[in-house]
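User: Small ask, check this?
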Amino acid sequence: MMKKRKNNERKIEHLSLVGKTKSEIIDLLGDDFNFYPDDIWYYIISKTWYGRKKILYIEFEDDIVIRKSIVSMYGKIKK
């Protein structure tokens, strides 16, 4: 189970998302709790038992991905 999760994390980290539309992102990753008109979306890639989260942030301009970043953090997720 753990190996499978790690492989999925690696796949997400290496996805080429720049240039894709919001619809293509939803097809790839789902819509989670992202509000469609927002210019910044996030996806929780992983969580640990002690509260650390690995988060994929996706930034859009005119509904096209211009930047992605992956952040590890504790606590509440900030946009």
